[in-house]
Amino acid sequence: MAVRLDEMDRKILAELQEDASQSLDEIARKVGSSKTPVWNRIRRMREAGVITRQTAVLDPEALGLEACFFVLIRTSEHEAEWQKKFLAALRARPEVLEAHRLAGDIDYILKVRVKNARAYDTFYQALISEVRIYNVTALLSMEEIKSTTMLPV
Amino acid sequence: MAVRLDEMDRKILAELQEDASQSLDEIARKVGSSKTPVWNRIRRMREAGVITRQTAVLDPEALGLEACFFVLIRTSEHEAEWQKKFLAALRARPEVLEAHRLAGDIDYILKVRVKNARAYDTFYQALISEVRIYNVTALLSMEEIKSTTMLPV
DNA sequence: CCTGAAAACAGACCCCC
DNA sequence: GGGGGTCTGTTTTCAGG
């Protein structure tokens, strides 16, 4: 999965992360190249899977999604069948923006975006009724200090 | 900050989140409208701040960023001066993808993307040498079950 | 691997409904 | 507020160095 990227590739990626709506000419100018080579590099990185897709970033507050929770989950179940069901449940729920299986005594962490605390409770009740969970801690975000999709390239 | 959005707006947002490189005609066809109204709605939502920006989503693994940590931070310091310095430090570090101030006994949570455990340690040492922190727990992600930028609209 | 031209295409803005 | 057309600029392709 590792792809060789040179300095020029990285500059292009930085520009595309910053603003993917820029024209090729603009990107080419900024990275000190010209249209066609930039275009070829972008195509190559798309094909290599470095660039996954292009998306519009929305403001959660403007959409009324004003509550953000990080959910720490411990479970007593470690069978394949249970895990499969749990993962499917997480993937199916659009309010779950992130889900990771962890090393250590906490088994999973979720990032959940909802309208308010009440909506979180609805989500939580639905989740625990679907799959057996041993222990849950919800951390409520008071302030989003930083939230970026931009990876260091 | 709350904006009135109708069903058509939400459909357009869903399409733009799914794939922002689609043409207006394509989006118009999918949502059952035509070019101009779709374009006007997009412009309105951009101006209202619902659509923040447009970005290329990159694959962290392909970039060699194979380690992801969630960092739980407790601090004994709650002065404005300390907090200002801490926030600035987080914002300045590109490996910190998310940072939230929390309610409850854990004060902050970070999401940190790095090459490996060693790179995390470098980050960690740099951070604690910059600002005084009382207690840190790092949760290592073993598996990214889900990671999406798509908000439920 | 780059330059430059050319063709296909989509975005931005018009007027009319 | 939606529909259709048009101009302009951008993407994509390709020939040639």
From TrEMBL, chains A, B:
GO terms for molecular function: sequence-specific DNA binding. PROSITE patterns: HTH_ASNC_1, HTH_ASNC_2. Keywords: DNA-binding, Transcription, Transcription regulation. The keyword Glycoprotein does not apply. Signal peptide: none annotated. Residues 5-66 form the HTH asnC-type domain. CDD domains: HTH_ARSR (cd00090). It comes from the Bacteria. SMART domains: HTH_ASNC (SM00344). It holds the Pfam family HTH_AsnC-type. One of its GO terms (biological process) is regulation of DNA-templated transcription. PANTHER family: DNA-BINDING TRANSCRIPTIONAL ACTIVATOR DECR, LEUCINE-RESPONSIVE REGULATORY PROTEIN. This is ArsR family transcriptional regulator.
